[in-house]
Amino acid sequence: MKRIIAIAYVVWLNLLRKKDLYVLFILLAALLVTLVSLNIFGLGHATGYVKDIGLLLTWIFGWILSISITARQLPTEESRRTIFPLLAKPLTRGQLIMGKWVGSWSVVSTATAAFYALTYLIVVGMGGHLTAPVLVQGFVLHATALGVVCAMALVFSTRMNSDAACTLTYVLSGASFLVVPRIPQLMAKETGLGSDLLLILYNFLPHFEAFDIRRRIVHDYGRMPSGLFALSLLYGIVLIASLLLIAWIAYRKKHFSRGSML
Amino acid sequence: MNTAIETRSLSVTFATSSGHVTALHDLNIVVPKGTVFGFLGPNGAGKSTTMHVLLGFIAATSGEAMIFGKDVRETIARQSIGYLPERPDTYPFLTGRELLHISGRLFELKKHIIRERTQSLLEKVGLTAAADRRTATYSRGMLQRLCLAQALINDPELVILDEPTGGLDPFGRMDIRKIIHDLRDAGKTVFFSSHELSEVELACDHIAIVAEGHVIASGPADTLVPEEENLERYFMRVVREHSDASRAKQQPF
Ligand SMILES: Nc1ncnc2c1ncn2[C@@H]1O[C@H](COP(=O)(O)OP(=O)(O)OP(=O)(O)O)[C@@H](O)[C@H]1O
Ligand SMILES: [Mg+2]
């Protein structure tokens, strides 16, 4: 455990000390400006609209941050050759993967928490209403979804450079987010092989819609039933664990020799 | 258990875009505990590759490698090893002191032990003044010194150093020689590669010379080299003889 935390700590220090922190501030400012300008253009009294846009931006920013931060963790260790002193220590490859995931996910979740806080403050500042418990549920599920995205990026980055891993994670997670919820409709129109293929995709791609309760927050439908909430959480944990397992299997026997890391 | 490192018929073959490269070819070495072992050979002989197998970065194509009697594929084999890579580099955003702290934490050392060792190692490698600067600002030699300190944070029983004097000034080389001496006095095993044969002559108990992935000469430092030769001339002679012989083998006519 100490080893995992030490690796995660390096991820934090890296982000805090490089220019990455500015990116967060720029994103926060973008969120602020967007939401406040909605108000100026007279859409403000419809605070539902502000909530909607705020949460949408929060999802987009969290998604981008997760992928861009996580996908480069392992590849930069290799290209800087810092992987060698690491692996020469009694650190297992599984611990390295876990440390990278914990580090990236905790950074991204913290940033996302800041987006939620900002949205909350703006909405409340405009005289709108947001139920804190629902917002907390929304955040917890959102953070779980980000954990899945981080784990997915790690899987790809075990065997690819960071650009390739980023691209693939964007495509796969984006497609899951947008397409998977629509598969049942599509299946109704398809027959035979097409329909079988869709069924496979439906079963194997992550269902990010299980973590997305933005509508509940925006329209103030009240808290998610705790059973359903727990089930979604459990689903997320299973997804994360499976992806990390795949990452470990891919990384476990990887050879680190010259040239393999380009 | 008197051997620190042992390899048996160790072979490593790399697949490249233009065919296979055999880096190690039935390599057999035995490094007795408590010795300073110089691992020599011309460029591309297979020294770094051997070390990479010993540390589990790559797997041997065939043969085996053991450290203190344990297969190198087991993580536990690395608990008491310190390693200095060939071209040391580190996280530019950390300070030297932080790097040593984090290295200590990866060995799960106690906080006060890490603090004490960090201080004494920084002194040993002459980085006390630069300890709280980011390593991005370090010179090549300073990085080398820091990575050496990092290799010693766990007070290792076996130290594997890949060209520890590369990139160091004469003072740095003297510091390294002193560190190696201290390690020997403390009963540790040092396995290092180097092209500075005069340094090797001063520091080693045992020497092995590799070429093209074979061991072509090995033995105690004081008896291996004939009286009338120094290590450098001996090295040049055996390596040349080996390459002439292997060329003759490939083209028998
Ligand atoms: N990943 C790799 N792919 C292909 N060939 C490799 C790879 N790594 C090493 N080699 C080859 O294996 C041989 C041994 O290389 P190695 O780095 O072990 O030499 P060395 O003895 O450390 O040399 P030097 O003194 O220059 O550091 C060389 O021919 C090298 O080109
Ligand atoms: Mg080398």
Task: Give your account of this protein's structure.
Chain A is mainly alpha-helical and 262 residues long. Chain A has one domain. Helix content of chain A is 78%, strand content 0%. Chain A has twelve helices and no strands. Chain A is globular. The mean pLDDT of chain A is 87. With 253 residues, chain B is an alpha/beta fold. Chain B contains eight helices and ten strands. A six-stranded mixed sheet of chain B has the order 6-7-8-3-9-10, sandwiched between helices. In chain B, strands 2-1-4-5 form a four-stranded antiparallel sheet, with helices on one face. In chain B, helix 2 crosses helix 3 and helix 2 packs parallel to helix 4. The mean pLDDT of chain B is 90. The chains are: A mainly alpha (262), B alpha/beta (253). At the A-B interface, helix 1 and helix 5 of A face strand 6, helix 2 and helix 4 of B. Bound molecules: adenosine-5'-triphosphate (ATP) and magnesium ion (MG). Residues 47-48, 86, 162 of chain B line the site of magnesium ion. Adenosine-5'-triphosphate sits between chains B (14, 16, 21, 23, 41, 43-49, 86) and A (257-260).
Which secondary structure elements does this structure contain, and how are they paired or packed?
The complex is a heterodimer of chains A (262) and B (253).
Chain A (H helix, E strand, L loop, with lengths): L1 H16 L2 H24 L3 H24 L2 H7 L3 H5 L5 H33 L6 H26 L4 H18 L3 H7 L3 H12 L9 H5 L7 H27 L10
Helix pairs in contact in A: 1-6, 2-3, 2-6, 3-6, 3-7, 6-7, 6-12, 7-8, 7-12, 9-10
Chain B lengths: L2 E14 L2 E14 L3 E5 L6 H8 L7 E6 L2 E2 L9 E4 L11 H11 L4 H14 L15 H12 L6 E5 L7 H16 L3 E5 L3 H7 L2 E6 L2 E7 H4 L6 H20 L3
Parallel strand pairs in B: 3-8, 3-9, 6-7, 7-8
Antiparallel strand pairs in B: 1-2, 1-4, 4-5, 9-10
Helix pairs in contact in B: 2-3, 2-4
Bound molecules: adenosine-5'-triphosphate and magnesium ion.
